[in-house]
């Protein structure tokens, strides 16, 4: 069920594809999300706040895109904290970023930097994780809440995360590209065992 938070914003449930149950993917996850215009409307500000609060309420969340909670807007939120556990589990973690909200983001991959395959999970693809090849380095363009353009280059796990979230805005799921799918329970066990080995 949806949860009402302190400031009366209702947090919707995830729009989810359940590959173990059905081949049906909800249209919201396949549609191109709508670009946000500036200055932000009250509706768009509420969408941003709802997505941000949903992110905050998750105990283990790297990123979310607005379509995942039923909002067809080009907005994402993500974070890559510099923690020992994350560095063990994601050894390609080179760039870190605190919680960030991007509007109308896009990216261009750097083919010369190469590619890297790693496992991904998603709140909108229930019950499984998959091995996905991504660009090791990307150039991004996005906007902040004030409409200021942001540009830069990011690498490693942060680049993977941003690619994953922007894909959601374009109707693409990690499962579309995964070369190996495993149960989420197996993925979580892999993570626990890797972190345990890293502390030995």
For the structure shown, list the relevant keywords:
single chain, alpha+beta, five-stranded antiparallel sheet, three-stranded antiparallel sheet, 4 helices, 26% helix
Describe this protein's structure.
With 200 residues, the chain is of the alpha+beta class. Helices cover 26% and strands 32% of the residues. Strand 1 and strand 2 form a beta hairpin. The longest helix is centred in the N-terminal third of the chain and has 16 residues, at 42-57.
Task: Give the topology.
Blueprint: E1 3-4, E2 10-11, H1 42-57, E3 63-65, E4 75-80, H2 84-89, E5 97-109, E6 115-122, E7 125-135, E8 137-143, E9 149-155, H3 156-169, E10 180-183, H4 184-198
Antiparallel strand pairs: 1-2, 3-4, 4-5, 5-8, 6-7, 7-10, 8-9
Radius of gyration: 17 Å
Q: Biggest sheet, in brief?
A: 5 strands, antiparallel
Low-confidence stretches: none
Helix content: 25-40%
Distance between the termini: 41 Å
Beta-strand residue percentage? 25-35%
- Main β-sheet, spatial strand arrangement: 3-4-5-8-9
Question: What integer is the average pLDDT?
Answer: 94
Estimate the global geometry from the Cα principal axes: globular
Order of helices and strands: EEHEEHEEEEEHEH
Topology, number of strands: 10
Q: Which class best fits the helix and strand makeup?
A: alpha+beta
Q: What oligomerization state is this entry in?
A: single chain
Number of helices: 4
